[in-house]
Amino acid sequence: METKTHRRQRVTADAVEPVLAALTPLLGNRLVTTEAVRMQHTNTLTWVDPEPPDAVAYPLSTQEVVEIVKACAAHRVPMIPFGTGTSFEGHVNAPYGGLSVDMSMMTSVVAVHAEDLDVVVQPGVTRKALNEHLRDRGLFFPIDPGADASLGGMASTRASGTNAVRYGTMKDNVLSLTAVLPNGEVVHTARRARKSSSGYDLTRLLVGAEGTLGIITELTLKLHGIPEAVAAGICPFPSVKAACDAVILTIQTGLPVARIELLDPLMVRASNAYSQLSLPETPMLFVEFHGTSAGVAEQAERFGEITAEFEGGPFEWATKAEDRSRLWTARHNAYWAVTTLRPGARSVPTDVCVPISRLAECVEATSRDIEATGLIAPIVGHVGDGNFHVQPLIDMADAEEVAVCKAFLERLVHRAIAMEGTCTGEHGVGQAKRKYLMEEHGRPALDMMRAVKQALDPDDIMNPGKIIPA
Amino acid sequence: METKTHRRQRVTADAVEPVLAALTPLLGNRLVTTEAVRMQHTNTLTWVDPEPPDAVAYPLSTQEVVEIVKACAAHRVPMIPFGTGTSFEGHVNAPYGGLSVDMSMMTSVVAVHAEDLDVVVQPGVTRKALNEHLRDRGLFFPIDPGADASLGGMASTRASGTNAVRYGTMKDNVLSLTAVLPNGEVVHTARRARKSSSGYDLTRLLVGAEGTLGIITELTLKLHGIPEAVAAGICPFPSVKAACDAVILTIQTGLPVARIELLDPLMVRASNAYSQLSLPETPMLFVEFHGTSAGVAEQAERFGEITAEFEGGPFEWATKAEDRSRLWTARHNAYWAVTTLRPGARSVPTDVCVPISRLAECVEATSRDIEATGLIAPIVGHVGDGNFHVQPLIDMADAEEVAVCKAFLERLVHRAIAMEGTCTGEHGVGQAKRKYLMEEHGRPALDMMRAVKQALDPDDIMNPGKIIPA
């Protein structure tokens, strides 16, 4: 396999100008070069340094994306697909300049096939907008990262969220994609059949590719029936280990829990303050069960028995929508709740994922590490998958604290990988985690990724500088 | 993208001889060139003409596969990975000669991680052997094509089977693969964490690649807890349409059915005769529910209500293992039952898959087509996925009948593709369905597959002549 690397330089104005000239007649005021807009299209939610594109294009259709790609390809100008900008690892930065291709105006729900439990959407539709659209059909799309991300962005980062333990990740819920490849071709990755053995899995090749192989312009997604009954509850534990052990047994016994989330004491404190809760500040599991009325009652009862085995409890659960909603809104606001713990600090959210048998060990070692460093870094996680988040709050003016945090984050990833885990369970690689890919995957796998990238994007114009290490 | 095609010729003895010479010291009598063994490694279960390899190698380890690949690569000799030879579309034929790499001696269960619900196996382990191994751990692997196929082969063809409606296909149940690439490198596609957003999905790139990108030498598979309770039942219907409509409503209402299989009247007749059943010879659904005792009772009751809406019934169900086992053994023996309908005839099993909303229409049109042609061709299917099988029985000495059947199979695929379906839901492409890939995927998607193939296997030595049309 060839493994030529592209050590790019930032594109020059000479390259960008003809692209802008070519696209202006097509896009008009949907092609923007103001500094404010360009800066909004950098990596804004983390400490990864912002690297603005030269311009931002707002296409309305697959055909317009084709025109954008062709214009950029002709001058080897990078394109960076942009959803809502809620990624954490530098995914939308433009280290080599070029065009940010902002999909936020492609927000049509193209077709709902209720009888097939699927929906066809444009990539700018957000998960909340989709579920709003679906609500009176009795259907929902389960993948829920904290942010109200766009579905194109969620596919690109192989996102998941609290429901993944039951419903899988984007990998499992994308039936088919339409994408514009670096050569301007429009590819349809699969038919609408529920399964297929017909050729290479192009759908899964693009899911998680972070826009480095093409720009997603349409998605066919699997839907699920809104469960007849939902029960949600919370359960305090004496230790993180006890909580993790309860999670492990829950998963092992095959209890079809829909959500099972761990909050460490600091995270509980943040949520109490931000979401006006009054939970005891101890390790806590938030859980949810989906099914029939009898089914969720049975599940909740069994879960209560499991928690008691690990000295957890009391396990309190409710089926009333208001009570559930209050809890899960608090969980989804965790990111913002954390940021209020230390006003003015920079939040540096990250995630790792390990086999569930190593979860307690990994979370505990991480807690001890946090304590030893003195960092303020709550832990919250989709622990049913072995996936957890750490969100240090850093005073960026304090160089020593920044260095301490960087070293902590490195240890976190090495720890997860040493436990047969991954450097990211759901956030993606972007720029910031490229350096871990060799350690995680090994050289042959990285060479295989490079060979695929080079075969499909030989000029390295699709989101260059992401995923694959230089 | 480059799309250079390799119009290969069969390798010459001059190329094969040095490979055999290089490998004989390593493999000894595990390198076989007798005609009988070579013929056993061709496509034996269908009417695709057998094309024997020049030799058959039986490696014991990943390292031996590396040596085989390096020796073959040095002389551009094709390699055809071989599991149990139960594929239907010419997957294991050697149109250009070369070595069949038979994995049947790599049968170790390397590790069972019960607490993580995963298992590491060598590719020659069959699904039944794995489940036998797992039984007293309370775990099982759900993917069950009719044959007792090898897990490496099942991954390579993206197999599924009766449980897919509940547990997914091989795509959903492979956590990670070890494979030897055409360049002799050993790639590990993923870590053992339950989910990851770390780079391209190499696992899914190899699942369904039919050995055209590398040889799988180890698999990490997801396991599931054996359900506490299982209920199985059968339900007759007045018409195929009524049965399909009942399936559609079952799926739409989110009833978590584990298996839901359609047998047309001819298939019922064959099963009655072969498996000593006495079912009414009318369209029939076989169903199974997994869960708690209360859960399966609730599911069965609801299913009974749904069937009644479509004039199906009586729906009879049982939780006794013997009764269930008798039914499902009959279902798994469908292939063999069909062959007994017309002794001496050649069985030509095939499958297509359509969105479930089109299922009734597709099956009915296919039934009418069968009737019009006069073919003997039972229909049986994993209808919860929109996937069904047709198994014509052909007198190969009757050229006209062969021609009628070929035309029928073409119409079947065109019909499925016209209904947004796929030319194969679970059997794979092999040689026989390559001609449909352009119609199904379109040129840009095929070019994308070609580019990936060429990037990873530039000399076209891994199972050449499969999947991608010449």
From TrEMBL, chains A, B:
Entry keywords, A to Z: FAD, Flavoprotein, Oxidoreductase, Transit peptide
Coiled-coil intervals, chain numbering: none
Taxonomic superkingdom: Bacteria
Membrane-spanning ranges: none
Residue ranges constituting the FAD-binding PCMH-type domain according to the UniProt record: 48-226
SUPFAM superfamilies on file: FAD-binding/transporter-associated domain-like, FAD-linked oxidases, C-terminal domain
Homology family: Belongs to the FAD-binding oxidoreductase/transferase type 4 family.
Official protein name in the record: D-lactate dehydrogenase (cytochrome)
Gene source species: Labrys wisconsinensis
